[in-house]
Specification:
The protein has 177 residues and is mainly α. It folds into 2 domains: 116 residues, no CATH class; 53 residues, no CATH class. 54% of the residues lie in helices and 2% in strands. The chain has 8 helices and 2 strands. Strands 1-2 form a two-stranded antiparallel ribbon. α4 packs antiparallel against α5 and α6 packs antiparallel against α7. The chain starts with 42 loop residues before the first helix and ends with a helix.
Length: 177
């Protein structure tokens, strides 16, 4: 079985300088540092490359005509260490129930773990980095406004994260305007 779909082309085909460039489609599986000329799979993609569906799916269209590993990868790669448990659960559900039920369960778990586009299974360091980046971005937006509008903008930005100030503080600031 060819794993060609997991790699991006390393070199563009030879062309005359006046010919248009061919589009090169980016793939998430590839992690190629600049000093390495040949792309390699991420460790999680390598882990998934060895997965095989249960025997009953050997001749199935699911196994032969679809790229089920890529769909599974897209549903699980954001969740760090928890993604390996999700893929193992996928294989167990394939064994006990069906492929479709397993994909539905993995996608439902992915939907539950994604909060505002960020994984709830992030490490502490990733959470700190995200909070720091959000703080800087919000600070730039708030400080670009005149003084009377800053508190309202801060409330709006916090609401976008599912957070808010205490009700008493909001009422107090509202009276001062």
């Amino acid at each position: 079985m060819s794993m060609e779909h997991l790699y991006t082309p390393a070199l563009e085909p030879v062309r005359h300088f006046s010919e248009p460039r061919l589009p090169i489609e980016p793939k998430r599986f590839v992690s190629a540092p600049k000093f390495i000329s040949k792309p390699r799979l991420s460790s999680f993609a390598q882990f998934m490359e060895d997965f095989k569906l249960p025997k009953r799916y050997d001749l199935s269209k699911i196994n032969t005509l679809t790229n089920w590993r890529e769909d599974l990868y897209r549903s699980t790669f954001r969740h760090g260490d928890f993604s390996r448990h999700m893929t193992r659960s996928f294989l167990d559900t394939c064994d006990n129930k069906s492929f479709n039920e397993a994909m539905i369960q993995v996608q439902a778990a992915n939907d539950r773990l994604l909060i505002n586009g960020h994984s709830a299974a992030m490490s502490d360091d990733e959470i700190k980095d995200l909070a720091s980046a959000k703080s800087r971005a919000f600070k730039k937006q708030i400080l670009s406004l005149p003084e009377p509008e800053q508190f309202a903008k801060a409330c709006q930005l916090l609401a976008s994260l599912g957070l808010s100030f205490r009700d008493e503080l909001i009422k107090e600031k509202g009276k001062k305007r």
